[in-house]
Design a protein that fits this description.
The complex is a heterodimer of chains A (371) and B (233). Chain A is of the alpha+beta class and 371 residues long. Chain A has helices at residues 37-45, 93-103, 109-119, 134-147, 164-180, 192-198, 216-221, 228-231, 331-337; strands at residues 3-11, 14-22, 26-30, 52-57, 60-64, 69-70, 78-81, 152-156, 185-189, 201-206, 209-215, 235-246, 251-256, 259-264, 273-279, 283-286, 297-306, 313-320, 323-330, 344-349, 359-360. Chain A folds into two domains: 3-228, Rossmann fold (3-Layer(aba) Sandwich); 236-360, OB fold (Dihydrolipoamide Acetyltransferase, E2P). The two termini of chain A are 29 Å apart. The chains are: A alpha+beta (371), B mainly alpha (233).
Chain lengths: 371, 233
């Protein structure tokens, strides 16, 4: 199951010229507004006809303009979760969910029950869409797309219209979906927090072109590849497990390969895998063991790379027992500390730098038992 | 209470009016819906001209519309003679002519109500249905049609009411023949022209008011029902 896209399209003064492939798992299309993300998924869904190029899903050619192939949207079996839900107001939740299944041949009630359980929407079936909260609507929209038995699911900023609490309500469902369903998901977002939490593969779009593509943890460390607006949120992704809780101080200790991190308390069982994002700008580097410091996470590592200067800032990479941490420092600090590849350093991260947006459940298989 | 009892002639007029209005409403429905879709969704040259022609009976004096119908569809008229010779259909001075006059007069009202409701449909819902596997005809049947149902009902009721009340075009086109083309308005008009006709005119006036009120209440009730079902999004 994979998607291959190679298309060109003009919309007024804007030109979309993209070539990319989305493997199994969740592929995030990330970029600022107006970078062509929605046009790209609309082309895959058949809602927009590109000027040139091809779209191949799972070996089947859906679009090949040169050969005059354009499969209409209703025959593509591409699930689409829209930003605004687009539930049918005249149908009940149950009828909305089963709408696509009615057109898709096959499928049994066990599948339907499974998806309804997965999304936690069993209690809503007899309601009308108008009586649902924003978060519930989006869960129904996701269920409706899945029940049409799609070969691929497109999600166009499904959380953009929701507040933080509602986002936090839906993110775990999308994580479960990514891990338990074998359908590839293409997820459009301009929020790095969502992308780092969800994506296995990250594709960065800028001005209608692919700026970077690769596994999320690798792209996240390359601040130079990300759009300037996202650099403040970028950093390293580490897989960890819950080691202990400290109720007195409301902290949780997480173990990574690099060492332990103490973060604001997370309500997960001991041993539960957790993916954390360490923002590059939250990292402090010291050449000797720091003392009298309020920050409580200190990890030992070795500088592996000093990046290219970006104005006053420069990104350095530090290898902490196999986990790579990226730090964004001033060029001034790098020079006065004499940082260079091979130099052993202490890396300091404040605990409160971690918030609920930077702590999430990891991808299955991403954290091996022996790690 | 005897003055309230309808005479057989008055009953004839009421039955004829109901038949004329029902036939006018039902036969224009498919054309009205098709025209509303064309005007709401179509993009073609001469669209505003077409829209203008359809709305013309709303603005023209009804007598003019009736006269045009007589000229075109009368037995000697260019269309009327063709229909008579080849299909044996005659409109002039028949109740079918009254239905046709009512239909022509009600058509713009029906198209207008339906067109507005079609334009109010969120087309993004239709594309969502498409991605779920519904082909365009299915999208129309399962999404568009249910969503525009209030507009369709409103259009039908307006067309029915217009055909019930139509007078000028009807009397010009098919005259005022008791039992054949004398609808309630024509009958009231005729009664007001006779010395002892007042009682009959009152009776038929009451009937007209009752029918109009019933149509209004029915349309309100239907609109509320649909509103409750769809709810505010």
């Amino acid at each position: 199951m994979s998607v291959e896209i190679d298309i060109g399209h003009r919309l007024g003064a804007f030109t979309l010229e993209a070539r990319l492939s989305a493997p199994a798992g969740l592929t995030a299309l990330f970029g600022p507004s107006g970078s062509g993300k929605t046009s790209l998924v609309n082309i895959v869904a058949g809602l927009l006809r590109p000027d040139r190029g091809r779209v191949v899903v799972d070996g089947e050619v859906l679009v090949d303009i040169e050969r005059s192939i354009f499969v209409p949207a209703h025959r593509r079996r591409v699930g689409y979760v829209f930003q605004e839900g687009r539930l049918f107001p005249h149908l009940s939740v149950r009828q909305n969910l089963l709408y696509g299944r009615w057109f898709a041949s096959g499928g049994n009630d066990r599948d339907a029950g499974h998806i309804i359980d997965l999304l936690g929407i069993g209690a809503l079936l007899d309601r009308r869409p108008a009586a649902l909260s924003g978060g519930e609507k989006q869960r129904i929209a996701i269920g409706r797309a899945l029940l049409a038995k799609p070969r691929i699911v497109l999600m166009d900023e499904p959380l953009a219209s929701l507040d933080e609490a509602r986002k936090a309500e839906i993110l775990p469902y999308i994580e479960r979906l990514r891990d338990r369903s074998r359908v590839p998901i293409v997820y459009v977002s301009h929020s790095l927090a969502e992308v780092t939490r969800l994506a296995t593969t990250l594709i960065v779009l800028a001005d209608g072109k692919v700026a970077a593509t690769g596994p999320t943890d690798q792209i996240m460390q390359r601040l130079d590849l990300l759009p300037p607006s996202a650099r403040a949120e970028a950093g390293s992704l580490l897989e960890s497990r819950v080691e202990s809780h400290d109720d007195a101080f409301a902290l949780t200790t997480l173990r990574t390969r690099a060492g332990t991190f103490r973060v604001p308390r997370v309500d997960l069982a001991i041993g539960h895998p957790v993916r954390i994002r360490v923002r590059a700008r939250d990292i402090i580097v010291a050449t000797s063991a720091p003392q009298g410091l309020s920050a409580i996470n200190t990890l030992r590592g070795v500088v592996t790379e000093i990046g290219v200067a970006d104005g006053p800032a420069v990104d350095i990479r530090i290898d902490c027992a196999g986990d790579i941490l990226v730090g964004r420092l001033t060029r001034y600090s790098v020079e006065t500390l004499g940082l260079r590849p091979g130099l052993p350093v202490y890396t300091v991260v404040k605990s409160v730098a971690f918030d609920r947006r930077s702590i999430g459940a990891p991808m299955q298989g991403a954290f091996d038992e022996d790690a | 209470m005897s003055w309230l009892t309808l005479t057989p002639e008055e009953w004839d007029a009421i039955r004829l009016s109901l038949r004329v209005a029902s036939v006018a409403m039902v036969t224009t429905l498919p054309f009205g819906l098709a025209m509303a879709l064309l005007l709401a969704r179509g993009r073609f040259w001469g669209k505003s001209l077409l829209s203008g022609i359809i709305h013309l009976p709303l603005i023209l004096p009804p007598v003019v519309t009736g006269f045009l119908l007589l000229v075109l569809l009368g037995r000697k008229g260019p269309i009327g003679s063709l229909l008579d010779d080849h299909l044996g259909i005659v409109f002039s001075f028949r109740w079918t002519g009254a239905a046709l006059a009512g239909a022509v007069m009600g058509f713009p009202l029906m198209v207008r109500a339906m067109r507005l409701s079609i334009e109010a449909v969120d087309r993004r819902l239709e594309s969502a249905a498409g991605t779920l596997g519904a082909s365009p005809p299915w999208v129309f049947l399962t999404i568009t049609l249910p969503l525009i149902l209030p507009g369709i009902v409103a259009g039908m009721i307006l067309a029915f009411a217009k055909a019930m009340g139509e007078f000028g075009a009807t009397i010009t086109f098919v005259s005022n023949i008791p039992g054949e083309t004398q609808t309630v308005p024509s009958a009231i008009y005729a009664l007001t022209q006779t010395p002892d006709g007042d009682a009959g005119a009152y009776r038929l006036t009451l009937v007209s008011i009752a029918v109009s009120m019933a149509a209004l209440i029915a349309s309100e009730w239907l609109a509320r029902r649909v509103d409750r079902r769809i709810g505010p999004e």
